[in-house]
Amino acid sequence: MNETHPFDPNLEIPQHVAIIMDGNGRWAKERGLKRTDGHHEGLKAIRRVAVAASQIGVKILTVYAFSTENWKRPRSEVSYLMKLPNLMEAELLPELIENNVQVKIMGDKGSVPKYTIQSIDNAIDKTKENTGLILNIAFNYGSRAEIVEAVKEIAGEVKFGHLDPDSIDEDTISHHLMTQQLAPYNDPDFLIRSSGEVRLSNYLLWQLAYSEMYFIDTKWPDFDKKTFLSCIGEYQSRQRRYGGLK
Ligand code: FPP
C-alpha cells in the first residue's frame, strides 16, 4: 500500500476524478478465481467508490470500463466485459439511483452488441433526472480515436465554411471531444490508476494535460471508501501550478 495522506473534508475536493480501474485479472488469479470474477468484483468497487465520491462532493467520476484495445483479449473475456452493463443495470443501478447519481457513457457505440447498448441506454435514461454525482463510464473508448473524430468534425466545419481555421484554438478541440458532455468540468482534476501500473493506456490524453496523477498499488476490486479517501488526501497534499509558479 502506498503511503497515505489523511483526507480532510475542509480542503479542496477535486471536481472531476478519472480512474483507470486496473488489476481485476491479477486480483482474481491471486485467489484462484477466473479473470471474469475479478471484473465482477470490480463492478462492486465502482459502487463503493461512486457512493464515497458522491458523499464528499465530487461532481464527476469518469471510469475506464472498456478500452478500444480491450477487443484484443480472448473472446470469452470480451464477451463477459460486454455483459458488464447488464450486470450494472441489475446490481448497481438501484443504489446509484438511491444516491442521486446520473450515469453517462462515452465511447464508440458501433461494434458494441445491441444488448450492451440497451443496458447502457436504460441506465442513462433511468438516471437522467438525477442531480448528484455524474458517473461517466468510458466504454469502447480510446483517446486517440476520440481526437481523430474531433479533427474530422472540425475539418468538416472548415470545409463547409462554418469555421475559420484561424479561429481554431484549444477550446475548439476541447468542445469536440466526448468529454464536452461534462462541461464545464471537461478535464479531470485528478487521475487515479490502481494496481501499480504507471501508464495512461490511451485514456483522456488531451484532458489530462494538467491533472494530478496518482498510481496506487491497490488492485481495483480491493478499492473501497477508505482507499478512495486516501487518494483524495493525496490530491489535497499536491500544489497545482498549471506550469506557473505559486
Ligand atoms: C482492467 O483490469 C479492467 C478492465 C479491462 C475492466 C474494468 C471493468 C470494470 C471494473 C467493470 C465496470 C463496468 C461497467 C460497465 C460499469 P485487467 O483485467 O487489465 O487486470 P490485470 O491487469 O490484472 O489483468
Automatic annotation (TrEMBL):
The active site is at D22, N70 (proton acceptor). It holds the Pfam family Prenyltransf. Its cofactor is Mg(2+). One of its GO terms (cellular component) is cytosol. GO terms for biological process: polyprenol biosynthetic process. Substrate binds at residues 23-27, 35, 39, 67-69, 71, 73, 193, 199-201. Binds 2 magnesium ions per subunit. It comes from the Bacteria. Mg(2+) binds at D22, E212. One of its GO terms (molecular function) is manganese ion binding. The keyword Metal-binding applies. The keyword 4Fe-4S does not apply. Keywords: Magnesium, Metal-binding, Transferase. Its EC number is 2.5.1.-. Belongs to the UPP synthase family. Homodimer. Catalyzes the condensation of isopentenyl diphosphate (IPP) with allylic pyrophosphates generating different type of terpenoids. This is Isoprenyl transferase.
